[in-house]
Structures are given as structure tokens and as C-alpha cells.
Specification:
Number of strands: 15
Structural class: alpha/beta
Distance between the termini: 41 Å
Low-confidence stretches: 438-442
Bound molecules: aspartic acid
Largest sheet: 8 strands, mixed
Strand order of the largest sheet: 3-4-2-1-7-9-10-8
Number of helices: 15
Order of helices and strands: EHEHHHHEHHEEEHEEHHEEEHEHHEHEEH
CATH architecture of the largest domain: 3-Layer(aba) Sandwich
CATH topology of the largest domain: Carbamate kinase
CATH superfamily of the largest domain: Acetylglutamate kinase-like
Radius of gyration: 24 Å
């Protein structure tokens, strides 16, 4: 029998009803042997995520300020979760230990990880499952999202035997045994690592939406669901803003060819989205359209730029020196532009421009802000004639001016920059061109 690794997100575990649902889903199929949990999330929009409360407690404690309010909220959440579920586990000593850690502990990651730890202890008790602490099993270096290679055999050994087994998401430990967390949302990475370690048939990622949509439903309310997407397509979409799964979570399973199935805890019978090594694209070469506002272009012009050597390298070197990460760098005969997210420029943009001016002495240097980037993604695009034509025609028909175009050599996405004010109009136009009534023109 192929076994399944299932990761449940914070909203699925926000209260006792959520945990009961999770238990039902796990009990439905004995193959669901490995369960990875997040910390309890928000019960309603104005609520707080447990991880945020823990981080707030730690930060106040470090400043010598009163942390009892956020920590009290964490205590209440776990006390009532345990009481409502009627688990045998006594959470009081665990919560006292947490309070002592908040008081004394310098390791922020340790405090941040306690939401997952406590949640996993309670869920394991409720399911009558074994608890395996990620601290013992998952090796991770600070600031990284990848696990150390020795993680896999160790985790496999610890997870062997009868199930179900519950593993807390979001953290592991470094070579000294100190807790290290993944980036925020990183329980998705743990789920992927567990799936790979046990050679799961599928990695089920249970969340609060029934999978991915072809585009942002805030712009296109009727956006169709994506039933199948490849790992690479998903990476392109999530890099550009489609946030259902953590961007780094595909890597561990992708290397082992294990599919991911994104599903909704609230609609467990919905088809969800399958993330696969490859897909039949048929008449739908474009799988999705993702985008974000908040980007800028640094435009540099210098006569005879192409005659010299190393101009582009120096532009990028100066970016690196200032710790600014860039997205695209399209070039012309005497021009080069670098596209960056605005948040990358915050506090560093002026110094960067001053250095470009001083070191490279350009004829023209301009920062063009208020842009949006849009990625039209699909593995079938490379082999289908006319995709770019249809994309640009749709934007022209909608009266949207294109400020930059970049089609990477992978040919699985075409990126365009437009004025931020045109973002919604552009998304709508591209969506209608590829998923709307005229889609049969493919
Ligand atoms: N609890 C962590 C967070 O809120 C990790 C996760 O939920 O995946 O970011």
C-alpha cells in the first residue's frame, strides 16, 4: 500500500472543530500515516496566529517589557484546545515550561517553534498517534530552507513502524541541537521533507482553499481552479505572488518525483490541485497568471555600452554590494534595466543609484516606480504558436501599455511589467484571452 504524508495548515487546526475534522480526514484512509501540523492559526479575521503571539512575547521579553498579554493568549489557546478535545495530555507543565523559556531564552526560533510543538503534542494525543519531534530528526542550518542530507535516513528510521505519526512542522535543529525554524509558512517544507523521507505515494497539503486558481480571485472572481500544474509552473506562479504553498516546499518531493495534492480541509471531496512532474497541456497551454504590484525598474543608458566589457556585471555587482536582489535585467544596445521589488530598495535605493552614477557615469539614470509585474505561465507555451501574440494583443485591446517584456529561456513563462494602475485591467485581459470564452482560439 502506498503511504501518504499529510500536512495540515494553521487554519485547519485553529480550534477543536478543526482538529476533529483533521482526525476524520486522517481516519478516512489508513494510508494517511504521516501527519505534519502547523501552529494554530486565526479562528476569524481579527484573531491572531499563535506563531505571531509567540514572536511578540519573545520580542517584548527581550526588551524587558511585559509579555504576559500575548503569552497569556497562547496559554488560553492551548488550554482550551486541549480541554475542548478532552485529551489526556496535561498541557499545564508544557505551558509553564514555555513561559520560563520566553523569560530566559535568547533563541527566537525556539520560541517561534513552540506553536507547532504544542499543537503536535495535542493532535498526537487526540489521534492516539506517536509524536516524533522534528528537533531530533530534521537538520537545518540557520537562515536556510533546505535540510541537511542526513535528515532523510534519520527521519525514515524515526518514522518507521505503525502509524499514524505526528510531526510538528516549521522547525528542525542545527548541529548543536539548537532549534532552527524555516522561513514563515515553512511547515509546508516539513511536509515535503517527511513525504520524501518515507517515499510517500503523495504529499497531501491540506489547507483552507480548495487548491490553486488560475489567477487572483480578487481581480477575477470567477477564476477557474487549476486541477494540474507542474512543479516548475507552480514555482513560477508562487514566485510571482500565488501563495498557496511555500515557494521552497516543492524541492524535496520534486527531487523524488512525489506528487503534491493541495486540498481543502473544509471541502475534502473537492478535486484540489495536483502538482506533478509533467502534465498533458492539451488545448490549455497556459496554466495560470500571477502578478504583483510594488515593483520598480532602474533604467541605465550609456552610449557605446555594448562596446565595453563588464558593464552589466558591474551593475549587478553594485546591486549585490548593497544587498539588493533583482528579478530581471533586460538589455538594449546602449541600455540596461534592472527590475526589482520595491521592498528590496527600501533604505538602500538612493545609495545604490549614487554608486551607479559615481562608478559607471551613465548618460541617463532613472528610477521608474509604480509598476506591476505579471507572469503568464504554462509548460505548453514553448510548443504552441501564437501565445505571445495573443497575450500582447489582449493587453493592447485593453489599452494597457507594456513597459517591459521578459521571456526566460525556459519558455514556461512570459513576464510583462505594466503601470501598477493597470494591474487589474491587465490580469483580466490576459485571463480572458487564455481562460475566457475565446480560449478555443488556441
Ligand atoms: N506557524 C508558522 C507560521 O505561521 C509556520 C507555518 O504555519 O507553516 O509561519
Amino acid at each position: 500500500m502506498g503511504l501518504k504524508a499529510c500536512k495540515f495548515g494553521g487554519t485547519s487546526l485553529a480550534d477543536a472543530n478543526g482538529v476533529r475534522r483533521v482526525a476524520e480526514i486522517v481516519a478516512r484512509e489508513p494510508a494517511r500515516r504521516y501527519v505534519v501540523v502547523s501552529a494554530p492559526g486565526k479562528r476569524e479575521p481579527s484573531d491572531h496566529k499563535v506563531t505571531d503571539l509567540l514572536l511578540a512575547s519573545h520580542s517584548l521579553a527581550r526588551q524587558g517589557l511585559d509579555f504576559t498579554q500575548p503569552l497569556g493568549m497562547v496559554r488560553d489557546r492551548f488550554r482550551s484546545l486541549a480541554a475542548d478535545l478532552g485529551v489526556r495530555l496535561d498541557v499545564r507543565p508544557l505551558l509553564d515550561e514555555l513561559e520560563a523559556q520566553v523569560r530566559t531564552e535568547g533563541n527566537r526560533d525556539l520560541i517561534a517553534s513552540r506553536g507547532e510543538y504544542l499543537c503536535a503534542r495535542i493532535v498526537a494525543d487526540f489521534l492516539g498517534a506517536r509524536f516524533v519531534d522534528a528537533r531530533r530528526a530534521i537538520g537545518v542550518a540557520r537562515g536556510r530552507s533546505q535540510v541537511t542530507p542526513d535528515t532523510y535516513p534519520r527521519l525514515r528510521m524515526l518514522l518507521e513502524g505503525e502509524g499514524p505519526v505526528v510531526v510538528p512542522g516549521f522547525y528542525g535543529s542545527d548541529t548543536h541541537g539548537d532549534i532552527v525554524t524555516f522561513p514563515r509558512g515553512g511547515s509546508d517544507i516539513t511536509g515535503s521533507v517527511v513525504a520524501r523521507a518515507v517515499g510517500a505515494e503523495v504529499y497531501e497539503n491540506w489547507t483552507d482553499v480548495p487548491g490553486l486558481l488560475m489567477t487572483d480571485p480578487a481581480v477575477v472572481p470567477e477564476a477557474q481552479p487549476i486541477l494540474e500544474v507542474t512543479y516548475r509552473e507552480l514555482r513560477e506562479l508562487s514566485y510571482m505572488g500565488a501563495k498557496v504553498l511555500h515557494e521552497e516546499a516543492t524541492f524535496p518531493v520534486r527531487e523524488a518525483g512525489i506528487p503534491i495534492h493541495i486540498r481543502s480541509t473544509w471541502e475534502p471531496d473537492a478535486p484540489g490541485t495536483r502538482v506533478l512532474p509533467s502534465r498533458e497541456h492539451g488545448t490549455a497551454p497556459v496554466v495560470g497568471i500571477a502578478g504583483r504590484t510594488g515593483c520598480s525598474t532602474i533604467h541605465i543608458e550609456k552610449a557605446m555600452m555594448n562596446e565595453g566589457r563588464g558593464f552589466g556585471r558591474r551593475v549587478l555587482d553594485i546591486l549585490e554590494f548593497h544587498g539588493i536582489s533583482w528579478l530581471h535585467a533586460p538589455t538594449g544596445i546602449d541600455t540596461m534595466s534592472v527590475v526589482v521589488w520595491d521592498e528590496e530598495l527600501e533604505g538602500k535605493g538612493d545609495a545604490y543609484l549614487a554608486d551607479i552614477e559615481r562608478i559607471l557615469e551613465p548618460d541617463r539614470l532613472e528610477l521608474i516606480g509604480d509598476l506591476a509585474l505579471l507572469a503568464t505561465v504554462g509548460q505548453g507555451m514553448a510548443n504552441t504558436v501564437g501565445i505571445a501574440g495573443r497575450l500582447f494583443t489582449s493587453l493592447a485591446d485593453a489599452g494597457v501599455n507594456i513597459r517591459m517584456i521578459d521571456q526566460g529561456s525556459s519558455e514556461i513563462s512570459i513576464i510583462v511589467a505594466v503601470a501598477a494602475a493597470d494591474y487589474s485591467k491587465a490580469v483580466r485581459a490576459i485571463y480572458d484571452a487564455f481562460a475566457g470564452p475565446c480560449r478555443s482560439r488556441a
